[in-house]
Specification:
8 helices, 6 strands, alpha/beta
Length: about 300
């Protein structure tokens, strides 16, 4: 594909590569939205387990707004509190990768729902540098994985650990969704889930405590309007500077990346300039036509 752009004299400007002077992405709103949706779904699944433990979590539809999502989750927590005869219910949640965009989005939505800060535990690389597995994860009701996987690391959890019925953990939301990678740090499952079937319940025997996994790879779609609005708000200022793409620093960097990648892709490949290519193709087509005409005349 890059060869065709090069041959046609075009350029591919990927907005994923719009970065500031420090190399930080400028248009990356889908990361926080994935964290928001992943944590919200995890909490919704946990609430469903409390209210209807013998039923699988049903399909979900996009929310009209973040406020609608928050109000729905608050209502679910209130129903559980009423069922238990207590004032409030506040599950404990662990977020690994909490310093990144996804992790910050996850913590943000849990705070909006009303969980106290002490019930939202945030782990960063400092907490995981020693390498897993981490038995501590089992003490939380919900685990939200928001890491950026760049290399193989020891697993955070194993299936053997989950056989422990003394665990509190019953929901894992894998926002990172790396189950198809050989380096997956959550080798407890291998099935992507969807809005139609949001959870995968691990089969660990009839006498083992349940555990549901959420592994949806298009989470921002749960809040389509909010996600689109926030993404557009970040992208629009750069689109307005597109006519200055040859001089505006952000677009210059994007162009340089494209040109570098084209150079890598075409290394060692003989590429004809566009005019030469077109001219040669026309000559070959004309030659082919003359040969066909000659054959017809001979017939």
């Amino acid at each position: 594909m890059l060869q065709r752009f090069h041959g046609g004299g075009g350029e591919l400007l990927d907005v994923e590569f719009i970065v500031n002077d420090h190399g930080v992405r400028e248009v990356a709103e889908f990361g926080p939205m994935a964290g928001i949706a992943g944590a919200a779904l995890a909490l919704a699944v946990w609430c469903h387990q409390q209210l209807k433990p013998n039923e699988m979590f049903p399909s979900v539809s996009p929310y009209m707004s973040e406020d609608d999502m928050v109000n729905h989750l608050k209502n679910q927590l209130q129903l559980i509190a009423k069922q238990r005869g207590v004032v409030e219910v506040q599950p404990k949640v662990l977020i690994i990768g909490s310093s990144g965009r996804c992790g910050k989005g996850a913590a943000y939505i849990l705070e909006r729902v009303g969980l106290p800060s002490g019930n939202i535990v945030r782990w960063t690389r400092q907490d995981t540098h020693r390498g897993g597995p981490f038995p501590e994860i089992l003490s939380y009701d919900i685990f939200v994985n928001c890491i950026f996987l760049s290399k193989k690391i020891p697993p955070f959890l194993t299936r053997e650990m989950l056989l422990n019925n003394a665990r509190n953990l019953t929901v894992v939301s894998d926002v990172s969704c790396d189950c198809t990678s050989p380096d997956n740090p959550l080798p407890i499952y291998d099935t992507i889930t969807t809005f139609l079937n949001p959870t995968h319940r691990l089969d660990m025997g009839p006498n083992t405590k349940l555990l549901d996994v959420v592994a949806i790879d298009h989470l921002p779609s749960l809040l389509p309007k909010d996600s689109s609005d926030k993404y557009a708000a970040k992208l629009l200022p750069f689109l307005l500077r597109l006519p200055e793409a040859e001089t505006f620093p952000a677009w210059v960097r994007v162009k340089n990346i494209f040109r570098h990648k084209v150079g890598e892709a075409l290394a060692g490949i003989e590429v004809r300039p566009r005019k030469e290519s077109v001219a040669k193709d026309e000559v070959e087509a004309s030659s082919s036509s003359d040969e066909e005409q000659s054959v017809d005349n001979n017939n």
